[in-house]
Amino acid sequence: MKISVIGCGYLGAVHAATLASMGHTVVGVDVDPGKVQHLAGGVAPFHEPGLDELLRDGRASGRLRFSTNPADARDAQVHFLCVGTPQGKTSDAADLTYLVSATQALLPHLAAGAVVVGKSTVPVGTVEMLRGELATRPDVLLGWNPEFLRQGTAVKDSLVPDRLVYGVEGGRPAAFHPATGAALGVTAALDAVYGPLLAAGIPRLVCSFATAELIKSAANAYLATKVSFINAVAGLCDAAGADVTELSEAMGLDPRIGSRYLHAGLGFGGGCLPKDIRSFRAQAATLGISAVEDWMGLVDAVNVGQRMRTVGLAAQLCGGSVAGRAVTVLGAAFKPDTDDIRDSPALDVADRLAAAGAHVTVTDPKAVNNAWLRHPGLRFESSTQKALQDAELVLLLTEWDEYRHLCPATAGQLVRRRVVLDARNVLDAAAWQEEGWVVRGLGTAATSGGLTAAAAR
Ligand SMILES: NC(=O)C1=CN([C@@H]2O[C@H](COP(=O)(O)OP(=O)(O)OC[C@H]3O[C@@H](n4cnc5c(N)ncnc54)[C@H](O)[C@@H]3O)[C@@H](O)[C@H]2O)C=CC1
Ligand SMILES: O=C(O)[C@H]1O[C@H](OP(=O)(O)OP(=O)(O)OC[C@H]2O[C@@H](n3ccc(=O)[nH]c3=O)[C@H](O)[C@@H]2O)[C@H](O)[C@@H](O)[C@@H]1O
Q1: For a 10 Å CB count at each end of the chain, is N or C smaller?
Q2: Residues linked to residue 2 through DSSP beta bridges, in sequence order
Q3: For ligand 1, is residue 10 a contact (CB within 6 Å)?
Q4: How many domains does the chain contain in total?
Q5: What's the pLDDT tens digit per position in 219-264?
Q6: Which of 207, 226, 256 corresponds to the end of one domain?
């Protein structure tokens, strides 16, 4: 099939490349000429494992190209809208202006009977609003196909998703022929797009626009809830002298609970969960559902609280204040295996420590270039060894494998004080303590110890 992907960021670039790998002919359109140049050259403009290979394959096969001109999408039968829906500047609600302008730019180039399908994460009611934008083209079909991929595993998540969700006009009853059961309209078009995935047994759920919009928001809200729940319990563990890592392991072995998104620490960040729970909160407020509104407010507050708590613990480990202290931060990306620094908890903490007078050095395997542009008050170092040199306090804030497997003896030779705040609870505390380190986690008070001694140094 001929397909266009409008918006080629973390979501759209991966979507375009994986569709081409399934045999479709794909054009990716983006307003950012630099991004398009990279992608057209077969190089991902951001770090995403496996994407470069797919881009190169797509280029070599001639099935994948990129452009800044929406007119280049005119031959496509299906258009996927993948532009950003960031948090608005003055409220919690999502900013839909990119979606509206992308739709308007595409409108004059739509072929007769084309299918326009949104993948961006949007508040409930957005598809109805976009239908108004397409009012002059009753022949054009509209659908919503929310995306659930995670950065860092985006290629695999796209090729082997847990499920496909199609939001269609009239919902499930309108999606299939009443007599034959054959898929109709948008459902048939998306079945053709995702043929190889459906043949591999990936479940496909067809529902109304409103349900599709809410499925995506609710899924992210639930993941965020799980993380904030365990982080709230981590606070309880600290107060009670219990260990949240052991608690979480035991809870997670119950299949009704499951261990994923139950890892306590610095909390969630990134371009999605934080803005999506705020958008969900704003939607609930508009619809007058105070339970969801209050719930999301609490999930957000617990999450932001973990950052404050980390800053407070850093001060405690420095005897009450970080002012004048050399602090090394391991990690700048919002999570490992990405160079994305959008709402990065690590950089938020680093900024706060710098504002409190610490001399902060930040290192990261992939995100240093992105980070130094936006955080001029911090010092960046790409070598872990150089970053650790003469540190008085080390903070592990993004759990890259490289940091999980740091040798405590080697690191100990580099620093001035052997004190580490493991805000992702991933280090083998006993191994580090054996090398003379004071180790502090979040919610792991029972295994830390040595705090008073650390503060005194
Ligand atoms: N990043 C992720 O892992 C996932 C993101 N999503 C959702 O997908 C959407 C996009 O997210 P990201 O890819 O992370 O954002 P992004 O900011 O990386 O990419 C958005 C792209 O859209 C482009 N753009 C803006 N206006 C345009 C226009 N009029 N025409 C063409 N291109 C235009 C921008 O230049 C940018 O490259 C958001 O709604 C997000 O919530 C959903 C699932 C996963
Ligand atoms: O809508 C989106 O954009 C995407 O948002 C998340 O994906 P992503 O933001 O890439 O990252 P996750 O792996 O979900 O991690 C999010 C944050 O939660 C944190 N986290 C995750 C799990 C955990 O146990 N504890 C924890 O603190 C991570 O460090 C990270 O900062 C969802 O997992 C995807 O399904 C969704 O498609």
Answers
A1: C
A2: 25
A3: yes
A4: 2
A5: 999 999 999 999 999 999 999 999 999 999 999 999 999 999 999 9
A6: 207
| Ligand with an atom nearest the CA of residue 397 | 2
Give the single-character DSSP code of 87.
B
Final residue before a domain boundary, out of 149, 184, 207: 207
Asked if 412 and 418 touch (Cβ cutoff 8 Å), the reply is yes
Query: Ligand 2 centre and the CA of 268: distance in Å?
Result: 7
Residue with tokens 């900013």: 95
What is the pTM for the complete model shown?
Answer: 0.96
**Residue 272 annotated in active site:** yes
Ligand 1 pocket, mutate which of 4, 5, 10 (most atoms under 8 A from CB): 10
Q: How far is the CA of 274 from the centre of ligand 2 (A)?
A: 10
Q: Is residue 242 part of a domain?
A: no
Integer-rounded Cα radius of gyration of the chain: 24
Which range marks the domain in which residue 322 is found? 304-456
DSSP string, 342-376: TT-HHHHHHHHHHHTT-EEEEE-SS-HHHHHHH-T
The token pair that represents 226 in the structure block:
């799980």
Tell me the backbone φ, ψ of residue 146, rounded to 5 degrees. -60, 155
Nearest ligand to residue 148 Cα:
2
Span 306-337, pLDDT tens digits: 999 999 999 999 999 999 999 999 999 999 99
> Residue 128 belongs to a domain with what CATH number?
3.40.50.720
Beta strand ranges found along 185-317 (DSSP E): 204-207
